[in-house]
Each structure stands twice: as structure tokens, then as C-alpha cells.
């Protein structure tokens, strides 16, 4: 009976791996799942020149580090099953990127054949790949293929059989430089006393993976005492630093190799690559992200002012028309002081909301938001979250409700819970009217910067809270961030306008439902009992305010602010409407003037109120979604209590500091 | 294809200096280290955040010079993104100027009685306009090129 040859087919996603597998195996394939995971497993057989080939199609991966189930499956198959030959399928038109996986397969000591697929496309493009040179430099076999047309498949089968006859090569070593090599040597010294590991795996490879912080590899150590020694050794170093250094060295190796095997197929540097090089720079990435965010809020504030003025003028005229034409006092008050003033004070901010969402849409559709998540990943990971969590958090700039629902994209339950708990700290669009009113009133031309500072504060509180939750509530490490960055595209004006309208429409719809209900309720509380002055301390709303005032008095907030904050739990926009009602002015310039002339409403108090509004319990809709998504009253109450406590403390600090500085 | 980057090198150096100096002056005035009237209170206003924006853009140009000094073509990527940032913030300040113009002359808003064009003519705007001219002249220098990737 002919000897069976075990062949594994590996490669990056979308390189034609499955087409090669199908061409190699014909119709003799079985499909199932890998044991214990839902990753698809395809196995086929092929008789060739008297040999029986058992061919297995590994999941498509960019590397063999244990980040995802696909990578673990691919790596463990090669390590545990020890196939006789590994065929790596590469996209010939994108050789440089595909060679990263090649370096990892070489380091594992696999008997490797490179199938340079799509070679026809590369040739049409004018690329000439020197196969012999590639083979001699890497010590592997290489075959040009065009899998769709079956070209090169017979040569590949011949090569597999020939390769089986050869001895398995020694693992290929990439020099990682003094600092890394020293640590690799030290780890090899520790693990050499584990005979099981030495028998099954290349020791240098094990040391490399340990140095990269691959926890899956630690589990492969059979001796508890060696595990302990390894963990002690690793706890004294920064794995991430070594991981980055090693990835850099692999890419350096590839960039040295490329010009020697192909002088014509260097990748074209597109404007997208140029932008990426800069905006993802280790040192410049975050400052560039911050200045772009600042620009967004500056524009939101500055360019909206004329439109706000027009809306304010319209509602002022409408309120005056109602007051002069309706003789029934309570109806005139309901329409003028309640509905027109309340709704007007909220509609005033429609231009800001529209501009903000338009700019966010521009960032999203251009592809920059994906970079923002990438840039923030390292910081997020350090603080207990993964870069992917940044996407729901960014959505939180719009509205917390869909943002909390978007955490469903996170695979890890702990990552998801923490992200849900901290997402409401990202300042949603509903808080913007409060900032614009207060920052515009008390900080004039610096208003845009103050608003930007509040958004940054929200991000910082979210990140610090995530760290605390990771330490005390959901221990463990966040999942690594894996995301392919889409190329930059010219943002489509039509799509951005549609996105702007959709988000703005939600705001308008809320004005028509929740906010009208809220302002009518506030009007009733301010109007009754009859005889009391409208919105005064003697009215129902005054009594309610006085009752809760002691809770916020240490912050310097009076009963009017206390009432506004209570109603803000329904929807944050109502904070502005409530102040308009309580000061008897409606919104706009009249409210600004009233606030400025109130001796109890200083710039420090305004800043403290903005901080409190940013951080305290999110609106009722967001709280309900947290309950629904966590399935737990406990987490819902915890989030509400924690956020309110954080808001109270930070608002107090803000007021105290601002009193000294301003 | 070999390209001559000497013009871009000089431009990056000049723009790096202009942006960082203008930015630091604005920051200095913003935090009170320099008097508001230093050089010009209208053309170089006291503006902490706006000044920091200029410093970051200037830093991008300085990294471009650093990359060029290593004979790396990557310097052109930094110069390219630097110019894009100049344009983005130039447009932002232009829109702010338009808004101020409407507030002052059409809506006659309170607080805009004394407003003149010079009040909105900030470094990010005039340097942004100049950057736009440079980009229009040199845009072919940033066209895709086979350079071996990053």
C-alpha cells in the first residue's frame, strides 16, 4: 500500500487557497468542523504517482499567533499533526504582505512549498518573480500557479511528492537583534528542562511565542515548575514591546528579501498608504486624532451660530405673537412659556447636531474612523479594553442606545460588559445643547475648546473606568484587536448628508415626543399651585427642587439646577428646556443673559454642571438598553449608581479647581 | 522612479518652522506667558487649543524633514499629510470666518459690533491658503509611485 502523505494548505484569506485545494483534491472532499470549534474543516484525498495525498485546507490566516480561533486551529494542526508538507498559497500580486505568514511557517520548521497563485495577473502587471532566487534564499520550493485554470497544479503535486522524500529542514531563524535574542536564549534555557516540549515543538519557536505573550503556548508546557519560572520571567518584561520589535524584524527581513526576488513588483505607494503611514504613526497618531476631533467641535460650534441665531429669532417672534394674541392666561403660558420656549430651546441646537453628524459621517465614510480605533487600540488595551470596543464608544458620540447595542459585535463577554458599562460616558448628541448653552454663555470664543475638553474627559473617564472594572469586576485580559483597515475613499457627500439627516431626524422626533411631554410636565409643575409665581421656589417644581437641592448643594448647584438634572434623566436635552422654564426665559440669548446675571451661576458652576451632565446616569432609554443587553437589573443599577457617583465627585473637583483658576 | 525631493525638503522645513512658531506664540499668549499684544493680537491671537493644532501640524512637517534626512522617500508622505492637515484646518477657519461675517453683517448679532475680517484671519487660515497654493502647484509630486512599499 502506498505511503500516505499529509499535506496542509495554508495562506492568507482571499489568495485562492480553496481554489487550489479544490484543484488538488478534485471531488474527493469531506467538510466538517474542527473538534471543539465551529471553524470549517475540509479534507480531501488525491492519488498521485503512486502516492496517496491526504490534503487538509487550513483556515485563512494572516499570521500564526493565537489571536483568533482560525489562527489557533491552523497553528495547532501544523504543530500537533505535523503534516509532511505545508503548501502556502500566496497572492503573487501582493507578495510582500503574504510573506509575513511565510516567515512564521519557516520559524515553525515546516516542510514548505510556496504556491505563487494568480501569477498570470502578476505577469500581466509586468512583475517578474525570480522563483529560483526565492527558493534558494528561503530554502523552500516554489511553484507558479493559476488555480482557476488549473495551471501549475500538476507541478505542485510533483513537488509535494518530491518534498516528502527530502528531510524536513531545520527551522528558519530570523535574527531579532541583541535585546530580543538575549531573552529568547534565556527562555530556551528555562524550557530545555521540559522534555515533552523539546520533543514536540521547536524550542526557539516556543521561546519566541512566550516572548510575544502567547498564553496558548504557556499551556503547552508540561511541568508546573517550569511554567512558574516562565511566568516569573515574563512578568518582568513588556511582551507587547517584544511583539512589536519582532514583527518589525520580520517585515525588515521581507523588505530585504523582496528586491532580491522581484525588482519589478514593489508595491505602489498610494495616497492611502501615505496617509496611513502618518495617521497611524506611534507618536503622531493620537495628536492628529485629537486635533481632528477638536476641529470637529470647533466647526460644530462656530459654523452653527448664525443658524442658531435665526432659530432663536423665529421662536422669539412666535412666543411674542402667542403672548399678544391669546388672552387666556394659562393657555398663553402653556404655549409661550411651556411648549414654544421648551421646544424652541431644544430645536435651537438642531444646526449643531446636523453639523456634528455630518462631520462624523465624513470621517466614517472616508475610512478614518477605522484608523481611530486602530490608533486607540494600544491605549485601550493597556486600560483593559480592546480597540474594537472603541467603535461602539465612538457611536456613543451620537447616541448611547445604538452604541450599547453595537457591543454585540464583541466576542468576549467580559469585553462586552465593560464596554457597555463605559459607553454612556462618551458624550452623546443630547448633551451637546447643554454644553453649547453653558460654554457659549460663559466661555465665549473658547466654547469650542471647552466642549472638546468635555468630550476628551468623557473618553478618559470611560478608559479609566474600564481599567477599574477590569481589575475589580471582570478580571482577565481583553481580546486582541484584529481588523483589516479599509482603504481610504473619497467621502460621498450624498451618503454623508443622508447619515446627517437620519441622525438629525431622530433628534427632531425626540423633540416631538419625549421633549414636548417633558416640557409640558415641567410647565405644569412650574405653573401650579395657582397663585404661586411661575417657576418660583413657591411652585410645585420649586418644592421638588428644594427637596433634592441638598444632594447637589456641595457642588454649588441650586434647586433650579437640581430640577433640571432630575428631568435630564428622561432626556438630556430637557436640562436646557428646564433651565429655560425655570428662569422664565425660554432658550437662546434670553436664557444666556438670565444665567449670566444670576450671581449663583458662575463660570465654575457652569463648568461643574457640564461635567455632571456629561457623566451622570444616562437617559432612561440607555438605562433600559443596558438592562436588556446585560439581562441583569444588577448591572443596570450598578451603571446608574457608578456613573452618578463619578459625576458627583468630578463635578465637585471641577468646581473647586475652577473657582481657584477662573 | 527616482524623484527629486529637494523642493519638498525646503518646503517642509519652512512650513514646520512657521506652524510651530505660530502655534507656540498662540499657546504662549493663551496661557499668559506672552502678552496678547505680542507681534500682533489679531493675526496671532491668544488661542491655546488652536495653537496646539498648529504645533501638531508643524511636528508632522518636522518628521518629514527627519525622514528626508535619512534619504527615505517616506518624508513625502509626511509632507503630503501635513499639507492635507493645513488644508483641513484652513477650510475650518474659513468656514468660521464666513459664520462670523454672517453674524456681524447680516444678523447683527450681539458681540459682533466691532468685528472685522482681520479678527478671523488667523494663522491656520492664511497658512492654509498658502498651503492650498503649494498643493495646487505640486500635486503631481504626490501621485502614486513604485517605491517598494512601506
Automatic annotation (TrEMBL), chain A:
Annotated Mg(2+) 1 binding sites: 22
Q: What NCBIfam families is this protein classified in?
A: feoB (TIGR00437), small_GTP (TIGR00231)
The name this protein goes by in its record: Ferrous iron transport protein B
Q: Which PROSITE patterns match?
A: G_FEOB
- Where it mainly occurs, coarsely classed, is membrane
Q: Which organism is it from?
A: Methanohalophilus portucalensis FDF-1
What keywords is this UniProt entry annotated with?
Cell inner membrane, Cell membrane, GTP-binding, Ion transport, Iron, Iron transport, Magnesium, Membrane, Metal-binding, Nucleotide-binding, Transmembrane, Transmembrane helix, Transport
UniProt KW Signal keyword: no
Positions bound to GTP: 11-18, 36-40, 57-60, 117-120
Pfam families referenced in this protein's UniProt entry, alphabetically:
FeoB_C (PF07664), FeoB_Cyto (PF17910), FeoB_N (PF02421), Gate (PF07670)
Automatic annotation (TrEMBL), chain B:
Name the domain of life. Archaea
Which source organism?
A: Methanohalophilus portucalensis FDF-1
* Listed name of the protein: Uncharacterized protein
Name the keywords, alphabetized: Membrane, Transmembrane, Transmembrane helix
On whether Membrane is a keyword of this UniProt record, the answer is yes
Transmembrane feature ranges = 7-28, 48-66, 78-108, 120-138
